[in-house]
Here is the input.
Amino acid sequence: MKKFSFKIETSLNNIDEKKWNLCASSNRDFNPFNSYQFLKALESSNSINSNSGWNSAYIIIKNNMNQIVAFVPSYLKTNSSGEYVFDYEWANAYHRAGGKYYPKLQISIPYTPVTGSRFLIDETFNYDEIMEYISSEIISICPKIEASSAHITFLTKKESQKLEKLGWLIRKDQQFHWKNNNYDTFSDFLNSLSSRKRKNIKKERLKFIDNDINIEHLTKDKISDEHWDYFYQFYIDTTTRKWGQDYLKKDFFYKIGSTMKNEILLIMAKKGNKYIAGALNFLGKNTIYGRNWGSLVDYKFLHFELCYYQAIEYAIKNKIKTVEAGAQGTHKISRGYTPVITYSAHWMKERNFHEAVKKYLDYEVLEVEKSKKILENYLPYKK
Here is the structure.
């Protein structure tokens, strides 16, 4: 008799909120994006499902006593949009070989390049045993649902090491995170930098004093629907101008404002009596997660001020250890952000394609690690 059973639900409406959050919070690296509230806001606002290509397929694992032991946030994807671990070349190669790459099984948090547990396992049960069971079931279910592959993105290092032993292919990439070295003030942080970098940051920040721009840090009940109205304007305007896609619907922001107000830091820039730009951050236990930003104006360095320096100031003031400023961006290095490795795991149904991807990743992983070492030589801190 099997110890566990595997079930897929297509809506969070059919999943108990308290049990989901219990499993999500069992992990020491818990962040707000694994929460029921964040995923429900995506679902109920039609930011996923609908025409997004993200079709909800939440995995539920029960033991033979009918107790839920784990959840997995997973989606049947019909495209590769909004993932931040790009597999477009893999999809093209698969199609050129005569295969059908989509749908694929995507285990991740939609539109969110933030590392966190992807197997939300109740800590009262055996972690390794459940990990092994989920891995085997995902591999066995892909042919049944006609999925070409399974992809687990921005998972933890611990999960990646376990899955590598189980035959998954591990891919590495890098982001840039700021670390709080017990600074008491922003000036303390500046004093840890080389003279030239310190002067550059001071010069950038003076632009906003000269332009009479006021900046507000809004949390909890200080955030109103009016702020979300402004922020959605910024979000739409910026994604349109940058040839991006406005994945998030307006209702998504209202919903997180209602259900996650204690986990949100909204940084807004104001000129006169009108808001002109804003940055949306989420608050974890010891981390600020920078997620979206937007602006109706084109002030030089405004993006750096709202997304980087203001987040650093907030972290220092509130004794927060880390600021994660999202995907990509080597320009963050000169502003004190250091390169950090991120992980993803991949499994391909076709064995020949699986081996071809493995050869590619063997090379890519070395290049990522080499790049990290090179970039560390350009960190702005005093030697």
